[in-house]
Amino acid sequence: LSLIVIPSSSTPTAAEALARAGRPGKALHWLRESAFIDLPHLRAVPRPGLHTAAMGNTWRAVVLGMMGLRPATDALGIDPCLPPEWPSLDVRVRYRGSLLQLHATPDGVTIGCDRPTRVRLGDGAIRTVGPGQQRLT
């Protein structure tokens, strides 16, 4: 049994950390908490207004946590950890000048990019993909 108590300002950070730790179900709980923080009709909002830090960190939780992106000097690491409720996740990012469109499913990642880009799927070898689209499993 584990109990996690997290202040509301830390919910996206918890989501990112839990996804990185391979616990997507728990991560999804905290991701939802973060994503809905500014929707008073869905929850009690302690202070009115936009929580821009929560917005940015919610994006981080999705991209760095659920999609598992790890920017490094030698390659972009991609190690998705999708919650069971998600059949896929699509993310568009720019890495070292290359525009990447990533589509992750439980069985692999499709990468579309506008120029050759070095990537590493999971703990696998570094590969160069693009330009164009390539499926990595």
State Rg: 16 Å
The neighbouring-strand order within the major sheet is 1-2-6-7
Q: What does the main sheet amount to?
A: 4 strands, mixed
Count up the helices. 3
Structural class: alpha+beta
Mean pLDDT: 85
Cα-to-Cα separation, first versus last residue = 34 Å
The count of DSSP E runs of length 2 or more, i.e. the number of strands, is 8
**How would the global form be characterised?**
globular
Poorly predicted regions are none
The run of helices and strands is HHHEEEEEEEE
Helix coverage percent of residues?
25-40%
Task: Please report which band the strand proportion falls in: under 5%, 5-15%, 15-25%, 25-35%, 35-45% or over 45%.
Answer: 25-35%
Please sum up the structure shown.
This protein has 137 residues and is of the alpha+beta class. It has helices at 11-20, 24-35, 52-66, and strands spanning 69-71, 76-78, 89-95, 98-105, 108-113, 117-121, 126-129, 132-136.
